[in-house]
């Protein structure tokens, strides 16, 4: 197989990390707007409300809201054929449960999509990328509650109808599998565990089920509104190796992937597979699927799988019989944030997902978060970023050309420096475009091309031939 003509090349962002303007034009608060910044290894502090005198990185982001024209012109200069962004849910429904949407919010995305289309850039839109309206968390307990399903469906219906002639590619929930993997799935499902008595495992399974049904309903209604829509799920894919060739460790690597397949099985097959029911048993949870829900899940299967890939892990069963997952593979170098660098892991992940589902794959996040230095002459020589991305693109090409995996696009994470989700930092930079802003929010927000800017332009121009 060759890299197809029309292969989507571009970059990915999320509203809460990029837009800023957190209260502009009637926007309500999202879960991101009460999350403070931190640093590597320190969890971000989450508040119930915005507190006076505290710094919340999402409030300004890097001001895409007011600078979208300048940024999109730069993406166009690099030759992007796609650009992934999310619609900030509380920009459209400030509390999440209103009857009518906020017209000013809808008008903003009209302007953004028009600007992208002007340059022939295909928008790829995530419907929920860590931007659940905060009000839904306080009033309903977020995705613990089935009551969010109709609110999400309505939000999707409104944006599908509004942008049906501007947007073709949609993703439902960003990294939905992290709902099971995270100790506290705040970003993914708006869930903070405060009550010691709450059965956390069960809550995560229920939140996932509610999101699966919501996603399936979105797929169904999206296809009714425009049969040409392509609607995908979005996973974080954690390629995992056994720490040794001991059979227990080989099995451990499989165990580590089960929560991820749990989500993709339901969204791609349309039902809870044996992998899913076995995981429920293993973890001691249970999901009762009504006939009605079963019908919706089957009807609302996704058209493709999008995923993020940053690094691989190793798995091991310790002497107590517990699964231990680490990022300390001795064969791999690591980034400034201790993430192993493993391009072959991307090829392995592509093969594993394609073998299992036989659905087109879209790499919608991949990249290197690094500290960039502005030289005396103002240049940014980010060769390390070029090396990382080039090796991963080469691995993707091998998956396409040698392994015959069907890949529809590559959109690396953060083509312009934006706020980090893990830490809220600015200094963890992924971009081809540098943004003058520091971790405390100081800076002019001025944009500047890095060395990697021209490199990526060349990659796209040659359809990936020249990395
Ligand atoms: C993914 C998220 O998990 O990783 C993005 O979908 C996030 O929102 C990206 O930004 C990189 O993580 P971080 O912590 O480096 O921003």
Task: Walk me through this protein's architecture.
The protein has helices at 15-18, 64-78, 89-92, 103-118, 134-140, 148-162, 178-181, 186-189, 200-225, 247-269, 274-283, 291-299, 343-357, 383-401, 451-461, and strands spanning 8-12, 82-86, 122-128, 169-173, 230-236, 240-242, 304-308, 313-317, 323-326, 361-365, 407-413, 433-435, 447-449. It has one domain: TIM Barrel. It is an alpha/beta fold and 467 residues long. The mean pLDDT is 98. Helices cover 39% and strands 14% of the residues. The chain has 15 helices and 13 strands. The chain is globular. The chain starts with 7 loop residues before the first strand and ends in a 6-residue tail after the last helix. Helix 6 (148-162) runs parallel beside helix 9. Strand 10, helix 14 and strand 11 form a beta-alpha-beta unit. The strands form 3 sheets. An 8-stranded parallel barrel has the order 1-2-3-4-5-7-10-11, surrounded by 5 helices. Bound molecules: 6-O-phosphono-beta-D-glucopyranose. 6-O-phosphono-beta-D-glucopyranose is lined by residues 14, 17, 174-175, 236, 308, 365, 369, 413, 420-422, 428. 6-O-phosphono-beta-D-glucopyranose binds at residues 14, 17, 174-175, 236, 308, 365, 369, 413, 420-422, 428.
């Amino acid at each position: 197989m060759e890299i197809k003509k029309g292969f989507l090349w571009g970059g990915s962002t999320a509203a809460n990390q990029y837009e800023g303007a957190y209260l502009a034009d009637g926007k309500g608060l999202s879960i991101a707007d009460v999350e403070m910044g931190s640093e590597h290894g320190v969890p971000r502090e989450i508040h119930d409300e915005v507190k006076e005198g505290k710094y919340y990185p999402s409030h300004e982001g890097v001001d895409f809201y007011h600078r979208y024209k300048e940024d999109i012109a730069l993406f166009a200069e690099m030759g992007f054929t796609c650009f992934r962004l999310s619609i900030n849910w509380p920009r459209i429904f400030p509390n999440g449960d209103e009857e009518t949407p906020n017209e000013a919010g809808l008008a903003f995305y009209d302007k953004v999509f028009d600007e992208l289309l002007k340059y022939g850039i295909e928008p790829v839109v995530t419907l929920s990328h860590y931007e659940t309206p905060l009000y839904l968390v306080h009033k309903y307990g977020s995705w613990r509650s089935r009551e969010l399903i109709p609110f999400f469906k309505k939000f999707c219906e409104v944006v599908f109808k509004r942008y049906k002639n501007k947007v073709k590619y949609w993703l439902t929930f960003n990294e939905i599998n992290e709902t099971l993997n995270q100790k506290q799935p705040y970003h993914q499902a708006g869930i903070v565990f405060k009550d010691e008595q709450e059965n956390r495992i069960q809550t995560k399974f229920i939140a996932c089920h509610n999101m699966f049904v919501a996603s399936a309903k979105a797929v169904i209604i999206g296809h009714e509104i425009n049969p040409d829509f392509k609607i995908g799920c979005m996973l974080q894919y954690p390629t995992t190796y056994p720490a040794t060739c001991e059979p227990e460790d080989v099995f451990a690597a499989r165990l580590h992937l089960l929560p991820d397949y749990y989500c993709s099985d339901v969204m791609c097959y349309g039902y809870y597979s044996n992998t899913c029911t076995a995981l429920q048993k293993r973890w001691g949870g249970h999901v009762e699927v009504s006939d009605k829900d079963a019908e919706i899940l089957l009807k609302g299967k996704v058209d493709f799988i999008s995923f993020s890939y940053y690094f691989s892990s190793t798995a091991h069963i310790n002497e107590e019989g517990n699964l231990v997952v680490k990022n300390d593979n001795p064969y791999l170098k690591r980034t400034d944030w201790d993430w192993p660098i493993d391009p072959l892991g991307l090829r392995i992940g592509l093969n594993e997902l394609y073998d299992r589902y036989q659905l087109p794959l879209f790499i919608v996040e991949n990249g290197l978060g690094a500290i960039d230095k502005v030289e005396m002459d103002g240049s940014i020589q980010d060769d390390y970023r070029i090396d990382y991305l080039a090796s991963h693109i080469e691995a993707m090409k091998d998956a396409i050309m040698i392994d015959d995996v069907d890949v529809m696009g590559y959109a690396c994470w953060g083509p312009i420096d934006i706020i980090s989700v893990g830490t809220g930092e600015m200094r963890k930079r992924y971009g081809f475009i540098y943004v003058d802003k520091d971790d405390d929010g100081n800076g002019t927000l001025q944009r500047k091309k890095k060395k990697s800017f021209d490199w990526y332009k060349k990659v796209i121009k040659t359809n990936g031939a020249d990395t």
